[in-house]
Amino acid sequence: xxxxxxxxxxxxxxxxxxxxxxxxxxxxxxxxxxxxxxxxxxxxxxxxxxxxxxxxxxxxxxxxxxxxxxxxxxxxxxxxxxxxxxxxxxxxxxxxxxxxxxxxxxxxxxxxxxxxxxxxxxxxxxxxxxxxxxxxxxxxxxxxxxxxxxxxxxxxxxxxxxxxxxxxxxxxxxxxxxxxxxxxxxxxxxxxxxxxxxxxxxxxxxxxxxxxxxxxxxxxxxxxxxxxxxxxxxxxxxxxxxxxxxxxxxxxxxxxxxxxxxxxxxxxxxxxxxxxxxxxxxxxxxxxxxxxxxxxxxxxxxxxxxxxxxxxxxxxxxxxxxxxxxxxxxxxxxxxxxxxxxxxxxxxxxxxxxxxxxxxxxxxxxxxxxxxxxxxxxxxxxxxxxx
Length: 387
Fold this sequence. Notes:
alpha+beta; 14 helices
């Protein structure tokens, strides 16, 4: 998302951007507290435009204040602007969730069911701008499908991504990639009476059969062909604790398997070692571990994990955007609002791209109020001609 002259868009471009926002976004600014008890901003539009300078352009709050004043948007101090940012988090979250409903192709909420509070756990590093900028790691939990960021933490880069960063509530389902496939992490969720759904690799976790024998994962994967889905009961042992679960797996298409194989080879070459034959062979399969019970059949388990990947593109954009901004590391409310603002920007970018890829000579959606104005004008012309 580019800016012009230090301000997010100008003239017609700004109007186009606003046309992508969900209906009622201005009223929601007041309803959700973004503009309550604030006399500085004339309207929600000026508030959004000012905060986008901070969120989209990576400016500090102080620089944002200067640019907003120079652009005749608002005269406000950086301290007061921080308060506005903190109070705008829920407004950002609402707009982002509405944008996803409208523009982002994803599975409906019925896929995840009403039995679990689905939480997408992820992490990313943040590099503050400038030669002396610090590098931080952000750990965040986002609910699906509501996209509510319910927990976020900022640490130094030495702190690894882990489920143990987050509070577990009964009924939670933690969904994450292979970086979280560790026995201690799974145990943390299990002890909190939650469930996990994580992608695994061939050597990440030692699994056991029901009788305690080592589970031959690769041998079982070899039994899969076509669209056949594997579903095998396994156990994990950690600190004398047995964690029952299942491995669900499916063979990739020939094209997907070849792409995965090349990725393994590139990674091994970059790290200066030779890829193991077993790793190359297992790259032809997708396999996950879950503690979900038999009421979730294996195809549903795999679809639920795929639901994570349906928003992965959005989060990749989000991660790239995170390198641009100044995160308030000592204020949890400001950090949450910052993350929600970044998610909103990521979805706006996604919506702009999707609209541009569709056949539309003008390149943006026509709003209902524009249609009504056009019809009104035609009526006037018709009336004038008959006069």
